[in-house]
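pasting for ref
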Amino acid sequence: MKVPIEIYAQIVERVQRDQAFARTLTNTQGYSDEMRLIHEENARFLDEVLKTISLDDLMTSSKDIADGVFLIIQHAISMPGFMKKMYQLLMQLSHPIPVYVAYLEDRIRSFERQPQRYGTQYDYDEQGRMTMYWCNDSVKTINQRRKEIGLSSVKENEQRFIHQPQLSLIEAKKHIKDQHEWLVKTGWCSEEDINRYDRRNA
């Protein structure tokens, strides 16, 4: 099915608005109410579109639409149910896109405070350093998984984050505390999940 031009235009417009607002923020500002509103509006829009156009049709229509749709999906971080539903739909595509699946799987696992598999998610650690989110597997294993789906190595990927500012210990502690409270509040995980995550290096 050909995607109507008006749907294509709306996807492009929504992605541009998302990216334009994101450029006004820094990683240390947290998740603003305005950013959350943009993400949730985009997710509801996509949910409505999927009532008449399949995700398969959207993701195979053009790279622009596929990239835009995936950005909307992975940015709906305050909507666990929506993101998990989209993950299942991505897995069921006639031609699944491995990179999209990997990024979304890692993002969901990181929000659930589970170890990621592909090393795609980064955040500030307890020392205030931007670092790859919790992985149980060796770098060698992660690199092999990444190579299989066309991603660069962990070391090469880390270059994207090398210039991120370091937080003070006080800032890092607050960042993690606020994040954990947000994850529980939005329904991504429970207090026990948080406690298990905190014990990961014990």
